[in-house]
Amino acid sequence: MRVSRVLAMSWRSVWSHKGRSFLMMIGLVVGIATLSVILALGKGTKGEIERRVRVFGTDVVMVAAGGGKMFGPPDERVTSLTLEDARAIEEEIEGISVLAPTVVKLAQAISCRGYNTSAAIFGVTPEWEWAWDWHAWRGGFITEEDLDSHSRVCLLGQSVMRDLSLAPGSIGEVVRINQVDFEVKGILEKRGTAPHGADMDNRVIVPLTTAMRRLFNIDYLGQIRIRFQDPKAIERAVPRIQALLRERHGLGPGIPDDFRILTPTGAAQMARGVSGTITLLLSLISAISLVVSAMVVANVMLISVTERISEIGVRRALGARKGDIAWQFLLETLAITVTGGILGFVLGGVVALGISWFRNLPCIVSWEPAALSLAISVAIGVLSGLQPARKAAQLDPVEALRR
Fold first, then answer.
1. In Å, how far are 156, 334, 338 from 382, measured between CA atoms?
2. Residue 241 lies in a domain
3. Three-class DSSP category at 124
4. What are the tens digits of pLDDT across the range 48-88?
């Protein structure tokens, strides 16, 4: 019998039992959809991790006030990280290309011409521009003269600029930070999200001396960003920085650090950990759905063989061979599983894009999930259909006609 005819008969049989076919597809659709979501979000997350590590810097070490947690803003209750610590690191640690001490205060009130918002305030030195490789998009950057004169000038992140309804050319505009007037000297380049997910553009930077004396009246730092000439030097430098700061802070054996040091490797591990639990859960759901789907398809097809014994007997009496019968049932199974795989992939792509849109998660729908879905569908179809096809082919035509 020609393959095209067998295919046509198989598809007609599937279509004539739409309810049964749909029930067999449900598990496969759910499993393939879940798998497609995992792959789409996983690929997007991988790209996002790489992007965030580039944002953090592959040649950078960050020292932040406050111990314990892996990352996040400096602990504002910790006052032990000082400018003297920054100078000691710069003098005693080899291979540093630029070092930028920084004061950080979160959620500070900012207003301009009746518009209000809140943002993080960063007190910085001119080195901050090169330590972060983050420059002024409009206007100029903080200078040594600004530091020496405790100037009330600032650069706005683009999220702050938007929230205050300022135009990109609003250089010279006056904004009020904690009831102190500052002149807008520049607008920062857009940077996006940090490795821990925060909006890096929701910030205002001011001269370090102005922040410490005029704004917050403090004598300690929030963080120190260190850039090395050679990224390979980081592995050797981190233990030395830790030992130096512990000695300067008078931390004896058994006393935990009152600071934390983050490296590019740590940033990548943290970013991967964000999606790890979700990925594991979705993988388990996908695996269970696919296994259940294969069992359902195999059992329903076996029941179908029993229900269609008379049909098989008639076909055998009219000249169909065992191979024709086997191929019909196997192709019916494949038609169901491949259709379910296609529907699952489409559903998974829609769900992944929906999750990406609603939860602001990175997502890349590509050809790999489609190819994998097709391969899994064919594999399940073959494995689930072999036994029913073999059982149908082995039926005695005489006995089948008697039923």
1. 61, 7, 11
2. no
3. strand
4. 666 666 767 788 999 999 876 655 678 888 899 999 999 99
Reading the block at residue 217, the tokens are 């009246």
Q: Extract the tokens encoding 244.
A: 């130096």
Which amino acid, one-letter code, is at 257? D
Are the C-beta atoms of residues 239 and 219 closer than 8 Å to each other?
no
Euclidean distance between CA atoms 286 and 35, whole angstroms: 6
HSE-CB at 66 with a 13 A cutoff on CA atoms is 14
Same domain, 88 and 185: yes
pTM of the prediction? 0.64
Q: Which residues contact 392 (CB under 8 A, 6 or more apart)?
A: 305, 308, 312, 325, 326, 328, 329
Query: Are residue 217 and residue 286 in the same domain, yes or no?
Result: no
Pick the more confident residue, 394 or 143: 143
Of 266, 241, 202, 268, the C-alpha closest to 90 is 241
Structural domain range at position 299 = 3-51+275-402
Residue 196 sits in the same domain as residue 299:
no
Domain co-membership, 188 together with 171: yes
Contact yes or no for 225/128 (Cβ under 8 A): yes
Question: Does residue 263 belong to any structural domain of this protein?
Answer: no
Number of domains in the chain: 2
Element housing 262 (H / E): strand 259-262
Same domain, yes or no: 175 and 128: yes
